[in-house]
Amino acid sequence: MSKNVLAFDFGASSGRAIIGSYDDNKISLKEVHRFPNDPVFVNGTLYWDVLRLLFEIKQGILAAHHNGGFDSIGIDTWGVDFGLIDKDGRLLENPVHYRDTRTDNIMEEVFQIVPKEEIYQKTGTQFMSFNTLFQLYYLAKYRKDLLDRADCFLLFPDLLAYFLTGEKTVEYTHASTTQLINAETREWDFDLIDKLGIPRRLFPKIVQPGTQKGMLSDEICKELGVPSVPVCAVGSHDTASAVMAVPSEKEDFIYISCGTWSLFGTESKIPYINEKSQKYNLTNEGGYDNTIRFLKNIMGLWLIQESRRQWIREGFAVTYADLEKEALAEDAFKCFIDSDYPIFGKPGNLPQHIKDYCKNTNQFVPQTRGEVMRCIYQSLALKYRYAFENIQDVTGKKYEVIHIVGGGTKDNLLCQMTANSCGVDVVAGPIEATALGNVAAQLIAGGDIKDLKAARQIIKNSETTTTYSPKDTDEWEKAYQEFLKLDIQ
Fold this sequence. Notes:
The chain has 19 helices and 19 strands. The chain is α/β, with parallel strands linked by helices. A 7-stranded mixed beta sheet has the order 15-16-14-13-17-18-19, with helices on both faces. Strands 3-2-1-6-12-11 form a 6-stranded mixed beta sheet, with helices on both faces. Strands 4-5 form a two-stranded antiparallel sheet. The mean pLDDT is 97.
């Protein structure tokens, strides 16, 4: 008899309900519900439409119930964003999107109170303007009335789980993205929190992935006509779930969880917090089984997605396959961008921002779609090389292969360019890494799979991968030296 669990996997543009079935040998996935996750811009603020997402979760539960049923539920999402709950258990307002502009200049204000070096030494977290630390500080200073009415904050997957169970806890891997967790103790750093004037009462109990958050509430069960099942704490930060599914038999490995963001890193039992890791702006985030995901957040396929959205707005119905073909038709290495240049992370006319960047850095300015796409592809692959070298420098280890998991595994051009740029084999797959990790955590919680090592072996048996070997490495080495002339962030 197979065991069925229900995984909700939320990305920045869509969400899915997936049934994971386990038969003691393999995990198989069946998508039963897919829905858009479109942010909403209202009166100058970019919000997540969280109540609509709860509606879609309910539809996913119903669809799964009518497709064989399920024994538990797990939820994973992107990091850093949250909702505020008042003392009566009510959501105070829609969660604000991390791409909103409210924290654009907040880091400098925070550093006047707590030096940058002190924050990094405590948390080991990469500095990004939208980290939860900066969002909560913004509220404490500029929307104190709102924060005064809040009893606690819940990170996005924990907020959705609260709607299902009524339980207010925060899962560790997600909490580790806030820049408010002490990297050594793996608990809230209340010394830092106090210095920033953020009330302690806001911070819920932290629970570990692979444990139970609560039971599906009687209210939900009655509304939907479904039985009550456990809602599990999985690796609720989507990268934590994706890393669980890396099909490596080695203890030391490099991965790229490749989607809207590219998370380039390695798994470690200890955090790496020193001058080099701070200089390279590398982050120490939580993983399953109390591991550390030592990684670099890199602006990933967002560059391609947002460029395509702009061209569609201009009336060109181009597909991703069209754009890859146009990129391949152009000459290589005519210009480069740093994918993490701040303006590239904002919605808007990204192709024009790329042209402006190239002009301002005295490079060839791309004109056609193909030239813009070629610039994006090769720049991403070179940024991966930069992160690869940074991580090897800090850890003192050499890695012989890079595992790419997630949606980016379908992009053959990017996978091949990554192998060329980094000079090592790239193993691509599984595509559905995040869902597989979510399912595996539920199965471990239910006692069906022994541990993380066993889960990775089962996932390896369940999935196929593709290997890309390096080509044209001399040309890519010359391009990398040119790329390094940019002000790389």
